[in-house]
Amino acid sequence: MKSISIIIPTYKPQDFLRQCILSIAQQTLDHRLFEVIIVLNGCEEPYLTQVREWAETAFHDIEFRLIHTHQPGVSNARNLAIDASVGQYICLIDDDDWISPDYLKVMLGYASADSITVSDVQNHYDDPNVIDPDNAYLSRAYHQFKAAERISILKGKSFLSSSCCKLIPRTVVGNFRFDTKFKQSEDALFMAAISKNIAHVIIAPPDAVYYRRIWPSSAGRSSYSIWQRFCQMMRLSKAFLRIWLSDIRHYSAPFFANRVAAAIKRFFLFWGK
To answer: For the chain, what is the total number of helices (H) and then of strands (E)?
Structure first.
C-alpha cells in the first residue's frame, strides 16, 4: 500500500502542468511510497497524449495513472481519482500549482491518521500588476499558527476552505466525496463534510511549501451580478446547514456557524464594492 496518493485534476492542460509534474518527480521522499493520479476531464486529444508524454518522461520510478473522463468538472475528476487511489493519505494538487522538493517527506513525517496536515502556501501571480490580498488567506493562517504543533478545526478554519496544501488521511475522507453540483466553493463544502472526522489541524514546518498560482480570473473578478451572488450565497449556506443537520452530534456547531457567516460576509463585501 502506498503512503500517499497525489491527485491532479486537469482540463485542457498547458505547460504549467508540466511544471507541477516535474516538482513531484523531484520529491526527496522515497518514490516507492507515493503514487500519482492525473485525471484529464473534457477534451481528449491532443491533451491526453501530451500529458502521458510529460508523465512518462518525468516519472521514471514513480507509479502513475492517467484517467480520462468526458464529464467536465474538477469535483468529478477528484472523485474518480479518490475512488481509484490506494494511498493512506490523499494529497490534492491543482494542475497549475507545484510543491517544494521536501514537501511530501516533511508532510508525511508529521501526518496523523485522525488529523489533516497543512503546509505553508506561497502565492505566485503571472500578472505582476495583480494585487489581491484576498487570496493570501492560507499564507496568513499558516504564519499565524506555525509555532503551534496542532490546533482545533475552529482555530484552523481557514485551512478548511481549500482541499489543497495538505495531507488528508483516507480514514478522514471515508465515503465523502466532492459535491459535483457546485462549481464554486466545492472545496469548502468537502472539507466541511469531512470535518467531523478531523481531530486536529497539524502545522508542518516551513520546509514544506505549496506554490499556488493565482490567475486574474481566480482573483474575485468574475462578472457576477448582485442577484447571482445572493443566490450563490443562499445555496452555499443551505448546503452547509444540510451537512451540519445530517449529524448534529458529531459536527461542530461553531465551525458551521462560522462557515455560513463567512459566506454572508463575502456577499456583503462584494455588494459594498
So the answer is: 9, 11
Strand partners, 4: 34, 89
Alpha helices of the chain — where are they, by DSSP H? Answer: 15-25, 47-58, 74-84, 103-110, 137-145, 170-173, 186-194, 226-246, 253-271
Burial class for 177, CB neighbours closer than 10 Å (0-12, 13-18, 19+):
middle
Pairing of strands 201-203, 150-151: antiparallel
Does the pLDDT at position 160 exceed 90?
yes
Radius of gyration of the chain (CA): 18
Give residues with Cβ within 8 angstroms of 267, minimum separation 6. 229, 230, 232, 233
Q: Per-residue confidence at 173, pLDDT binned at 50, 70, 90? A: very high
- Residues 193-223: tens digit of each pLDDT: 999 999 999 999 999 999 999 876 544 445 6
